[in-house]
Design a protein that fits this description.
Length: about 375
């Protein structure tokens, strides 16, 4: 396990974080541009020196400002894959992979190299030079080179960001396939939410050099505790409310004239912030409206429809609610039920999916 306590201050920015990553864990770091993700990785590698703090591998200190411990970069055994492949242009792919490797003639080394070349589909390219490969192929070489050094920690700094989407998906799938065998802690920095969800065992959300929230991938993406996290992940339905009643495990919350039922015990009279993902707002079919017994059913008017990569995002005006209620619908639902702009519509705000936030901060 690696444990980090990191402080680094610049004139207009300060990094101050504490976290750990287990031996077989992939920790994803998410956050807006300029939040300190890349600075964090540079501090871990030693490219940037700490002002205060420590880097510890199990019980071994690699960096400790209190004892003036600072293990040189080349002795930390950290694999670092960046956005650019940084291969030697004058060497072949095979020569790039074995460069500086002491045991490159051993059978075990050759077998492992052959295995990774097969997984990353580069067997036929070992005699080529980097300039003859695509960007995706060059990144695959960089990953293999890092893995062949048998690192004790792997760092990825948005390694697929410059690639086309099909290549990003393919490399992501290959990395997921091999990471189970590595038993090496991985810290993966990305701005791609889908990538972070697919790769991460645990997620840290950063903003302005600090950790906003951390938890398992499921916790962060499905039930974030902080408003800043929810906003960063794209949640559009976030409202102010006041609890007006509580009966049998269900709180009733007044939100500017409409009443939402929430499956949570909250003190009556308390002012809260709550939200729900647009995909958890449900469409109620016209012929089922009268017989539907669910709570949180509202009638409204569609004020906007925008196409998304996986369907449509609808903005719905509900009663006297000043904010629109946003709902995601798959393409086939919109087409099958003939849903159009300015139509009257009934929705169900799924009470089981409503999140009551721990903080009341409003912007990221």
């Amino acid at each position: 396990m690696y444990t980090f306590q990191l402080k680094k201050t610049y004139q207009a920015f300060a990094l101050h974080v504490s976290f750990s990553v287990a031996d077989d864990e992939t920790l994803v770091i998410l956050g807006p541009s300029g939040c300190g993700k890349s600075t964090l990785l540079n501090v871990i590698t030693g490219v940037v020196h700490l002002d205060e703090g420590s880097v510890k591998q199990d019980n071994t200190l690699l960096v400790d400002t209190k004892t003036n411990t600072h293990v040189p970069i080349h002795q930390r055994n950290i694999g670092y894959i960046q956005q650019k492949s940084n291969l030697f242009p004058h060497l072949t792919i095979f020569e790039n992979l074995i460069y500086g490797v002491k045991n490159r003639k051993s059978r075990a080394y050759r077998d492992e190299l052959e295995r990774l070349l097969t997984i990353f589909q580069l067997n036929e390219d070992v005699d080529k030079r980097p300039g003859e490969l695509s960007g995706g192929q060059q990144q695959r070489v960089s990953i293999i080179r890092a893995l062949m050094s048998r690192p004790s920690l792997l760092l990825f700094d948005e390694p697929f960001s410059a690639l086309d989407n099909p290549l990003r998906i393919a490399l992501r799938e290959q990395l997921i396939k091999i990471k189970q065998d590595l038993k090496v802690p991985i810290i993966f920095v990305t701005h791609d939410l889908e990538e972070g969800y697919d790769i991460g065992d645990r997620v840290i959300i950063m903003n302005e050099g600090h950790i906003v929230e951390e938890g398992t991938t499921s916790q962060i993406f499905n039930t974030p505790k902080q408003i800043k996290t929810a906003q960063f992940l794209g949640m559009k339905n976030i409202w102010d409310g006041r609890v007006i009643d509580y009966i049998d495990g269900v709180s009733c919350v007044d939100i500017h004239g409409i009443q939402l039922h929430v499956n949570q015990e909250i003190d009556v009279g308390k002012e809260i912030k709550l939200g729900i993902k647009s995909m958890d707002v449900l469409y109620v079919k016209k012929h089922r409206i009268e017989s539907d017994q669910r709570l949180n059913l509202f009638h409204g008017k569609i004020m906007d429809i925008k196409r998304t990569y996986n369907g449509f995002l609808l903005a719905i005006k509900v009663n006297d609610l000043s904010d629109h209620v946003f709902m995601n619908l798959p393409d086939y639902v919109v087409r099958t039920h003939g849903i159009y702009l300015h139509d009257r519509i009934t929705v169900c705000i799924n009470q089981e999916k409503i999140i009551v936030f721990e903080d009341r901060n409003e912007t990221l």
